[in-house]
Amino acid sequence: MFQREQLxxxxxxxxxxxxxxIGLGNVWRFPYITGKYGGAVFLVVYLLFLLFVGLPVLxxxxxxxxxxxxxxxxxLEKLEPKGTWWHKFGIMSPIGNxxxxxxxxxxxxxxxxxxxxxxxxxxxxxxxQVPAVFGxxxxxxxxxxxxxxxxxxxxxxICAMGLQKGVERVVKIMMLGLLxxxxxxxxxxxxxxxxxxxxxxxxxxxxGRAMDAGFMALVNDAMNQAFFTLSVGMGSMxxxxxxxxxxxxxxxxxxxxxxxxxxxxxxxGLIIFPACFAFNVTPDAGPGLIFVTLPNIFxxxxxxxxxxxxxxxxxxxxALTTVIAxxxxxxxxxxxxYGWSRRKATVxxxxxxxxxxxxxxxxxNVWSGFEPFGKGSCxxxxxxxxxxxxxxxxxxFLFMLFCCHRYGWGWDGxxxxxxxxxxxxxxxxxxxxxxWILPVVFLxxxxxxxxxxxx
Length: 455
Known about the structure:
With 455 residues, this protein is mainly alpha-helical. The protein contains 20 helices and no strands. Helix 3 packs across helix 18, helix 3 (40-68) packs across helix 19 and helix 14 (287-299) packs antiparallel against helix 15 (304-338). The longest helix has 35 residues, at 304-338. The N and C termini lie far apart (51 Å).
């Protein structure tokens, strides 16, 4: 019989869960859309969605995990009323985690590769040649595979060391290091000459800019960012609840994790925008900002190679903590459900995911002719669409029904588990909102994703 492991400390739980939530979306998407939609105008809308959309589902995932002492795939089976079919949805969790890692591991590999490029001077080239460095990396399948295997092997090795000695200990160090590097980078960026213009663009309310971008677009992007930043809906957080003791209330722990996630996102903007404005560079979204624009800034900055290296170390830490957390979920699925040893689950899944990352890697070179969503799209876009527009919103919708309706686990079971231990209690007056209104919001997110993608 498999004996459930437990985390050694409350700090370990908070940093491990925050590490899963804090990812690349906090860094290259959040600052951009905040600037695009009027700075503080967007922040207010985003924080409202974070509190009233993302946070409740996070608490539910933790509650299901701690009450069942299992990962999502097996937790629903343990908690469901006898004769119901909730356990059939448990398979969404391992499927979602696999698909996420199929493209997230290669992207984490890009970050490590750029750390090396910063150190060895590969990026110390004229401005017009930096895009060629990024394109050359994507066009070289062997280089991408090498760094993906480095990411996968190192993260699986950490998981193989065990929950407390491996996953918890390493992620605590990485997260604390990430926060220290972030604060240092932000302080340096904000004191650059001309950096204050970037801070103003980022944080000052600008209703004109927000309305020019479109009110409904602002609301939709704020809702999506709040929803997806916490990685809720596919059981990634459920597993950490299963490792948690019952001495602290889950509402209080979840609020701390949301606060950490938001701090990282806000601080990322303080790193990026002042630097962009100090060097008269227009910030844009996505990979172009991180892999083309910022290296040019570092090339023109005093001690730029050092600051650039630290920046990509920070980016790598943000990516690797997410990878470690999700891999732990995958390993736990096989340990819980099939009685595998941690070592066996680690080795088999390392081989499986090494193969499963190949479509994403080859999609930028050998298979570049495959464009699932039209010209310019690639395999990564398809994998991201499956996760972001399908599994996460539908998974959150199911969690909401399972925890709030009487034909699932039910409201009483959920709130009792969430409130157990010291700390903030779950606000019971939200019952009607969570039972009848928020599920409709999730269906709206799901429909809106398809409308934006195809219409």
